[in-house]
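Journal club prep, notes for RB
We'll compare a predicted complex against what the paper describes. Inputs for the flavin mononucleotide case:
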Amino acid sequence: MARVAVVYGTTEGQTAAIAERVAGVLSDAGHDPVLLHAAHLPAEFSPDGYDGWVVGASVHYGRHQRYVARFVRDHVATLDRVPSAFFSVSLTAATGTPEADATARELLDGFLTETGWTPDLTAVFPGALKYSEYGLLTRFVMRRIARKHGGGTDASRDYEYTEWDAVERFAAEFAGLLAER
Ligand SMILES: Cc1cc2nc3c(=O)[nH]c(=O)nc-3n(C[C@H](O)[C@H](O)[C@H](O)COP(=O)(O)O)c2cc1C
């Protein structure tokens, strides 16, 4: 059984939900995941004693949460010593064109370059349009973006694009890496 830190950054909650699903799969595989919000670490947090790391962050205005990048930079030597994985959540990953897929990967690669981290496994996951979480201006902006890219434009409801099977495969693959070590 491996003790795994599942660290995430989230603005409207979708990355938190994905991190929870990853933790659930790891738990079902017999591991001991600990969910940690990178901006709200417990006072007693220590990076020591984890056998693996999964980090997730979402994209807003072309970049991942700064506090997640800071967390990874601060602990990169620790993360590189054991199996580690990173997942990036965005709406670009939901668009479904080869160009958009390439952009989603570039955003992920940019995060790794910025932090100097080389995880063993990476993934991009489509996120969600959460009109219910947005203020007036953000709702307006996101509707325009959604219209342009073929996303949902009915602001009276939310749209979830995350492919949960892909999330579970990612987590299962990471569980396999933990088992190998
Ligand atoms: C204000 C705002 C800006 C966003 N900017 C981007 C962006 O630049 N590129 C992108 O692919 N997705 C962008 N998104 C979509 C988010 O990545 C997506 O909604 C994701 O599910 C958010 O995850 P979270 O709920 O964990 O924060 C943006 C969303 C909002 C609300």
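Talking point for the session: Residues 10-15, 58-62, 89-92, 127-129, 134, 138, 142 surround flavin mononucleotide (CB under 6 Å).
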